Amino acid sequence: MPLARGDRPARCDGTGTEANRRRRRNRDLRRDGHRSHRGRRGRRADDEKIMTIITRFPPSPTGTLHVGSARTALFNFLFARAQGGKFLLRIEDTDRERSRAEYADQIIAAMKWLGLDWDGEIVYQSRNAGIHRQTAERLLEQGAAYRCFCTEESLEAKRVAMRTQGKPYRYDRTCRRLDHAESDRRAAAGERFVVRVIKPAGSAPPAPQVPASPTPAGGITYQDLLHGTITLREEDLDDIIVMKGDGRPLYHLAVVCDDIAAGVTHVIRGDDHLDNTPKQIVIYQALGEKLPTYVHIPLILGSDRKRLSKREGAENVLEYREAGFLPDAVLNFLALLGWSHPEGREILGRDELIRAFSLDRVGTAAAVFDLTKLRFLNGKHVHGGPPEARARLLADYLTRRGETPPSTADLSAMLKVNGERGDTLAEIADYVRFFWVRPKTYDEQAFKKFLEGRKDLVEKIRREFEALADFEGESMEIFFRDFSERGGLKFKEVGQAIRVMLTGKSVSPPIFQSAALLGRTETLLRIDAAQEALATQK
RNA sequence: GGGGCGGUAGGCGAAUGGUAGAGCCGCCGGCCUUUCAAGCCGGAGUCUGUGGGUUCAAGUCCCAUCCGCCCUGCCA
User: Å from A377 (CA) to B22 (C1')?
Assistant: First the structure.
């Protein structure tokens, strides 16, 4: 039974406007959608009896996992997990020409990386083609669909003709007027045909889950959890094709069949499907199946307010892994695009997301993808854990990039010194790499400012490092403060000179702790190298 | 062309029809400091795309308009 029902006592008894009624109803719907079936005290088993919520994510393997799709997957995942339901993964490879196994594998890899673990086996839609075909035949037998012998070329010509006249295109239903005998004869003769489903006409459609205002001219009215009542009039619908001329099923048929087979209760998808839903509802109705609850979430846009494109940075989820982002941070960020925590919290781990998630806090406006905020959140996630965990993450990351990082124990010590510098693993690596990679060059400006013409100072610094009794960060700092004062220098000048010599840059983790970690031998070696550079430059 | 959906500071977003801009990112300034982050403190940015209407009261409901996105495929 659908969760959202219209059988509750009327609560807007004629005092409000129709609009008010509608609004309230929408609000109620949203609430029911996320509040679960589970245990409503006092309400007995009538329609609200235990029903497991089942959501699904159905990517088509015609490309890698797009961040927008990842967010759709996330919402399905979070809703199912929050409600103790199931989250299914189905690869929609119905279009054999466009689908590629490599993409399916990449999408699966991306899902795993994100930690969006699904229940049960992955369904490959193409394997259900037989069922889809049988369903089309059943539709044909029932008279809910008909064979169409029009060629693609003639259809295209009609489309162009209508468009050039500025008129809306609809299939002219030539083949719908064919009588059965002729249709059968032509089919038997081997003529190619597609199967079209007859759009509802004339009468009002059977009431969906919640009674809505009747649609005068037929058409389809349905309830969306987020958008409320969506109506498409009869003239705005068409007799859609569900089976191609080669006998292969098409998307709208395939999703409906597979969702029914899987017992999907909630269809959470991008709002680009808002207008596709009626086409699918027609099939549900012809099949006598009850509708799932529809939840159309807004799309993600690029900074130009257009559909997120490649130049916005990565649209492929796996590219974020390469750029040094953490899956939890990506999930956190994606969740915040369209959903907000009831208490306004923003830095949330996967489990916190599951605990706090509800559909009634999902908005309806498209959101712009903001890489800066993703980076901020990633910084929070990556620095949130202990240095040891970060060390493992970083080691894996570097290894994958073909670098050879130090042991995680050593890395961990370096990261402790590094503190919270760097938002991504890539940036963190840039901060700490000097520990195990000697600077080959020096930042030009820094070299000029802090080393050039300071041979004597460098020489003195070297001597002190060599003579230092205790090669430890804090005592070194105290020593060099005193050293600066004695030499009539600013501590900053000395510190920066050392920094440039040891790291090659003017920005780095605290330099004395770094030197301590580097050790006396390495520190002296680097000063020697700097002296050499100083000498050759002259 | 037809239809659907959306529009609150630069971005994400709060706000039972009741003082709008909570909170976060970013930006600017300050503190801290050996550099840079982090952290803490403060600040700018504005009146909900626009115009009507309903109401004692509208970001919220209605109409129109503009803009954006989507559908209008033998793609999904």
Answer: 20
Q: Do A476 and A515 touch, CB atoms closer than 8 A? A: yes
Nearest nt to the CA of A272 via C1' is B70
The nt closest to A380 (CA vs C1′) is B38
pLDDT recorded at residue A310? 66
Report whether A240 contacts A249 (CB < 8 A): no
Task: Identify the residue whose Cα has the smallest distance to the C1' of B54.
Answer: A17
User: Which two structure tokens, joined as six digits, stand for A61?
Assistant: 């393997």
H or E element in which residue A79 lies: helix A67-82
The residue type at A30 = R
pLDDT for res A412: 96
User: Which pair of tokens denotes residue A346?
Assistant: 């923003």
Q: Which of residues 404-463 of A touch strand B (CB under 7 A)?
A: 419-422
Query: What ipTM did this prediction achieve?
Result: 0.95
The Å distance, CA of A346 to C1' of B55, is: 37
CA-CA distance, A106 to A112, in Å (whole number)?
10
Cα gap A431→A155, rounded to integer Å = 61
Asked if residue A496 keeps its beta carbon closer than 7 A to nucleic acid strand B, the reply is: yes
Amino acid code (one letter) for A135: T
pLDDT for the residue A219: 87
Residues of A designated as active site: 310
Which positions on strand B lie below 7 Å from a protein C-beta? 1-8, 10-14, 17, 22-26, 34-38, 60-62, 68-76
Q: Which nucleotide is nearest to A491 (CA to C1')?
A: B34
- Separation of first and last alpha carbons in chain A: 85
Contact A249, A95 (CB under 8 A): no
Q: Which residues contact A59 (CB under 8 A, 6 or more apart)?
A: A65, A69, A73, A91, A92, A107
HEC per residue, A480-524: HHHHHHHCCCCHHHHHHHHHHHHHCCCCCCCHHHHHHHHCHHHHH
How far is it, in rounded angstroms, from Cα A433 to Cα A406? 10
Which parts of chain A register pLDDT below 50?
1-48, 203-216
